[in-house]
């Protein structure tokens, strides 16, 4: 075994996880590569070519790099545990009128636990991934902090990791920009890898048609929710829609009809199959309640605490005051925030550090 130890690296076949493995190998770690098969796209009935982390091409790419570099590589099938939890939750959240973020749920409940389980079996002390983020430790608490590349920072999607998981995780790309990672791939002779495009799709909806996925997953859903109504913010019926699960807060395009001026989805009521449409100003909120909270930097929040709160991935964040109320957090924004969607994640920052995060429950003025 290497003097630096044995480390299990999650390899999707993409440039970030591949360079992570190559980097650790060059640094003298005994690298073991692992690729997790989370979803079989053919079984979803989607159209188009299978892409992303679960495609055969991606798995083969990860295996080939391992062969080239001379370290072991394993493929692990976790489709059953992934599907039971992540996909069922994805469908249930839309049926409940909320907008889920399955990638965060997968990180928190599936991938990290699956990786650590295999790390123990393979006698690996640590796991590593290609996320652009850091793990820091202060006052006996571990927490996620932002990576140096603001365009690639992925701290937002890692808010659900617990203290144990963070204690066994390494993020080698934390201090690099995306351009530097592409250059490293070139320097190691992998020109094609350096040009590999990003993948932004949900792995089990690679055609980005989540409405089609819901219909295929629950064939009875379409008939159950058809002929719902659009209302304006005053409660007047202004049209019909295809069913409330097929709309999200803030949506403007794809409403199926014209209203003479831009209209946005401002509220979804699953009990009455009603979708409320309003103007941009009707999307603005300055308060929200966050549930299922995971605190990182503090065991309990100072009361109250100023923080920058992000309400979606790539959100710039808004100054706010956060207060712990039981297992929830009340957020009061210092400026109006547009398009807060129940079901999405809220993540709280103190400078570059993640205080914690949770799932948006409700928002208000």
Percent of residues in helices comes to 25-40%
The CATH level-2 architecture of the largest domain is identified as: 3-Layer(aba) Sandwich
Shape: globular
Rg, alpha carbons? 22 Å
Major sheet summary line? 6 strands, antiparallel, barrel
**SSE arrangement, N to C:** EHEHEHHEEEHEHHHHEEEEEEEEEE
- Give the low-pLDDT segments: none
Strand runs, count: 17
Average pLDDT taken over every residue? 91
Topology-level CATH name of the largest domain: Rossmann fold
Count of folded domains: 3
Provide an overview of this structure.
By secondary structure, this protein is of the alpha/beta class. The chain has three domains: 6-130 and 172-194, Rossmann fold, CATH 3.40.50; 225-278, Adenine nucleotide alpha hydrolases-like domains (SH3 type barrels); 283-364, Translation factors (Elongation Factor Tu (Ef-tu), domain 3). Helices cover 26% and strands 31% of the residues. The protein has nine helices and 17 strands. The strands form four sheets. The chain has a six-stranded antiparallel barrel with strand order 12-15-14-13-16-17. It is globular, with a radius of gyration of 22 Å.
């Amino acid at each position: 075994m290497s003097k630096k130890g044995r480390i299990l690296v999650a390899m999707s076949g993409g440039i970030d996880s591949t360079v992570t493995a190559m980097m650790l190998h060059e640094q003298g770690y005994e690298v073991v590569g692992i690729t997790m098969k989370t979803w079989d796209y053919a079984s979803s009935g989607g159209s188009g070519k299978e892409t992303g982390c679960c495609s055969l091409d991606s798995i083969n790419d990860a295996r080939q790099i391992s062969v080239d570099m001379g370290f072991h590589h394993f493929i692990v099938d976790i489709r059953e545990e992934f599907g039971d939890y992540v996909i069922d939750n994805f469908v249930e959240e839309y049926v409940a009128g909320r907008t889920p973020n399955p990638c965060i749920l997968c990180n928190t409940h599936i991938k990290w636990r699956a990786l650590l389980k295999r790390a123990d079996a393979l006698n690996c002390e640590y796991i590593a991934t290609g996320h652009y983020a850091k793990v820091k430790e202060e006052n006996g608490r571990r927490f996620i902090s932002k990576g140096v590349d603001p365009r690639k920072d992925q701290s937002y999607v890692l808010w659900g990791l617990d203290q144990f998981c963070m204690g066994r995780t390494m993020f080698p790309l934390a201090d690099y920009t995306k351009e530097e990672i592409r250059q490293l791939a070139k320097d190691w002779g992998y020109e094609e890898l350096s040009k590999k495009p990003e993948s932004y799709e949900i792995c089990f909806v690679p055609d980005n048609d989540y409405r089609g996925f819901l219909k295929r997953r629950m064939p009875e859903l379409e008939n159950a929710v058809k002929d719902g109504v659009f209302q304006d913010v005053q409660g007047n019926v202004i049209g019909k829609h295809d069913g409330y699960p097929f709309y999200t807060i803030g949506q403007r395009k794809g409403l199926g009809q014209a209203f003479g001026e831009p209209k946005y989805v401002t509220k979804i009521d699953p009990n009455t199959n009603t979708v409320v449409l309003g103007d941009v100003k009707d999307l603005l909120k300055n308060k929200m309640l966050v549930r299922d909270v995971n605190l990182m930097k503090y065991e309990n929040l100072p009361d109250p605490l100023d923080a920058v709160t992000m309400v979606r991935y790539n959100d710039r964040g808004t100054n706010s005051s956060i207060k712990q109320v039981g297992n929830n957090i009340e957020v009061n924004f210092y400026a109006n925030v547009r398009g807060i969607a129940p079901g999405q994640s809220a993540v709280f920052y103190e400078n570059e550090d993640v205080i914690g995060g949770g799932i948006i429950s409700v928002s208000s003025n």
